[in-house]
Design goal:
Elements: H1 2-19, H2 22-35, H3 42-66, H4 75-90, E1 92-96, E2 99-104, H5 108-130, H6 135-155, H7 157-160, E3 166-167, E4 172-173, E5 176-177, E6 183-185, E7 188-190, H8 192-216, H9 218-228, H10 230-235, H11 240-266, E8 268-269, H12 276-289, H13 294-313, H14 331-349
Antiparallel strand pairs: 1-2, 3-8, 4-5, 6-7
Length: 364
């Protein structure tokens, strides 16, 4: 009798799962993402790649700020470490624009891995400070990283190329090069954007699943305890300083990977890009999407990074928005107004963000 009841319960549970729309929506979304390179032009693929790289960096920042409560204003610094670290490690020594560029000429896949580890090492050097500071104090301390980074990027010409930046070597993996060399797939020419699309999706999936596993496991509970009740977490035996330092290193590695991907998409690194505005944009991403949520980081990154691209593409048909120097509001400036307003709206009406994680104590 009990076995029959169990079988009936199992069938009912399976039927309930099949009736839920979420799995089908995920499957349809996955298929759509895989097919996009066959239908979108280069502009929209590059915009999607920018959003994917931003999502990876935003997931890392959400682990730090959303889940642990550590305010970081220096996320752009670690993106720069990843981007320029890859260029130096993978590039060849050459001369460009009066600068003798230094390059180690390592295999590009190895350079990408080492660049991510280099960003983590930079975070590790700062982690003793991150482990002991919190709130506005940590925010001010990390803000100093931006000024230090900008000074180094503009003045270390042999490493960064100075104001004009330096070229980015294309990535080669298992004999396949992600460059503009044409490869025809199903009668569709694939160039660098199409090739990088699938690499970026794989990296985003891996980063998202890893972060989700961290947040759902014991480390995630410890991080949330530190965020909500730091003293109580310490009393219960949670090593607060160690967890804070560790998540800072992990967040830095996420930023380093995002920097490597951005460099591959841009095909040239420019110091001005890795400034304070970029760090503020990443904070806007996680606030809009939802603090402590992996999906929220992805949605917020897509909104903030795609908005200027959309405004640029449709600036001719939008009121008040026009190309820079033509009398209207530039697309980049207009996008900052809009996502700034989105931050205010989210703080006022959706304090937890668009995808606020459900509290385990709340009723479904």
């Amino acid at each position: 009798m009990s076995e029959a009841v169990q079988d009936t319960g199992a069938r009912e549970a399976l039927t309930a799962r099949l009736r839920r729309p979420a799995p089908y929506l995920r499957l349809a979304g996955s298929v759509l993402l895989l097919l996009l390179p066959f239908y979108l032009d280069r502009f929209w693929l590059q915009a999607g790649l920018f959003a994917t790289a931003a999502a990876i960096g935003a997931i890392g920042l959400n682990l730090l700020t959303g889940s642990t409560g550590q305010l970081s204003m220096g996320h752009a610094f670690f993106l720069a470490v990843g981007a320029y670290g890859y260029c130096v490690l993978a590039g060849e020594s050459s001369t460009e624009n009066g600068h003798a560029l230094t390059g180690l000429g390592l295999p590009t896949w190895l350079a990408a891995v080492l660049a991510v580890l280099l960003a983590g090492a930079a975070g590790g050097l700062f982690s003793p400070i991150a482990g002991r500071l919190s709130g506005a104090y940590l925010g001010i301390a990390t803000l100093a990283l931006i000024f230090i980074g900008q000074h180094v990027l503009f003045n270390a010409g042999s490493l960064t190329g100075g104001f004009n930046g330096r070229p980015v070597p294309p990535l080669s993996l298992f004999g396949f090069t992600f460059d503009d060399t044409e490869v025809v797939v199903a009668a569709v020419p694939f160039h660098s954007s199409e090739k990088l699309w699938y690499l970026a999706l794989a990296a985003l999936l891996a980063c998202g699943l890893f972060a989700r596993g961290v947040l759902r496991g014991r480390p995630g509970r410890a991080l949330n305890a530190i965020r909500d009740h730091r003293i109580a977490a310490g009393v219960m035996g949670v090593p607060v300083a160690r967890y804070r330092a560790g998540v800072f290193v992990l967040s830095s590695m996420y930023a380093g990977l995002a920097g490597v991907l951005l460099a591959l998409v841009f095909q040239r690194t420019v110091p001005e890009y890795f400034g304070m505005i970029l760090s503020l944009e990443y904070l806007a991403m996680i606030v809009i999407g939802g603090l402590g949520s992996v999906a929220g980081a992805v949605i917020g990154a897509a909104f903030v990074s795609l908005l200027p691209q959309v405004l640029t593409h449709y600036s001719d048909s939008l009121p008040l928005v026009s190309a820079p120097g033509t009398g209207g509001v530039a697309p980049g400036e207009a996008s900052r107004y809009l996502y700034g307003a989105a931050v205010v709206a989210v703080v006022l009406f959706l304090p937890g963000g668009i995808t606020r994680p459900k509290n385990p104590g709340e009723k479904k």
